[in-house]
Design goal:
The protein is mainly β and 320 residues long. It has two helices and 22 strands. The strands form six sheets. It has a four-stranded antiparallel sheet with strand order 1-2-3-4, with no helix packed on it. It has a four-stranded antiparallel sheet with strand order 5-6-9-10, with no helix packed on it. A four-stranded antiparallel sheet has the order 11-12-13-14, with no helix packed on it. Strand 1 and strand 2 form a beta hairpin. The two termini are 18 Å apart.
Length: 320
Amino acid sequence: ARLESVRHGTFDSPNKQPFTAHPHRDPHTGELHAICYDALKRNKVQYVRVSAQGELSRVVDIPVQHGPMIHDCAISRRFVVVLDLPVTFSFKRLLSFSAFPYAWNDRHPARVGLLPKDGQASDIRWHDVDPCFVFHPCNAFDLPDGSVVMDVVAHRRMFDRSRQGPEMDSGARFERWTMPADGGRVVREVLHEQPQEFPRLDERLVGEPYRYAYAVGFGDGRQGGLPLLRHDLQTRQTLRHDLGAHAVPGEFVFVPRQAQGAEDDGWLVGLVHNRQSGRAEFHVINADDFTGPPQAVVHIPARIPAGFHGNWIADADLHP
């Protein structure tokens, strides 16, 4: 496969505007939902919807302060979740010629917004939350009483001392956030204390109640390899899959064996950096035998940077 650009634009639309690294596909409609930001427009972010045909179908301007960096979002059946957290544009870093002009901002109130998918910015239900930062939510879903649940990896602070991304001492706990129907403060529950990142699920259940979440466990980087974690959100038990003493995994994604299979009937696939060989490996793990041996390990004669992450798209989806 080749990856040359055909043209610049927002999918199959003529519009040219910033887009996110993490759009979320609604499995019921095929639409992509995204929260996007532009460093040159610090007073707003945008909700962007892309139709299943690749057309830009909806853009909503959302007023904000300070130019927050919003890496990702989440969707439920009814809402798009907006993470307005205290990492914002920094003129100080810009004037010091930093290649990354964003920093932790104690003056920026942390809040989470619920935007109805067909609503306007004035319809957003905002919820205050204790200051923290989220790169990657795992999933969100609606409750019958009008509340919304979202599972996230939450860092205590980010881009405060370091500009290199997630830090080993930044907390990075797996948490369940509940946004009450009355618009009150976010209720935070710790699901797992171990530092971790890149939470993923069976994407057939995006926006719906689900059982299993997968993540990459962090450590101090010196005492062996980093594990994969599987959180059972029904039993609240966590399993650990060790990839080897020299393994530094990137994000692992779930691939179902069959379209109508069970939530854990499939594989986890991802790239692993081997610190001993200096090269990459592609691991295939049976999701329903999480602690067992891998289905396959493909040795790649090149280095792929640790932390690499992306998604899986089946041939049938590319060529229906």
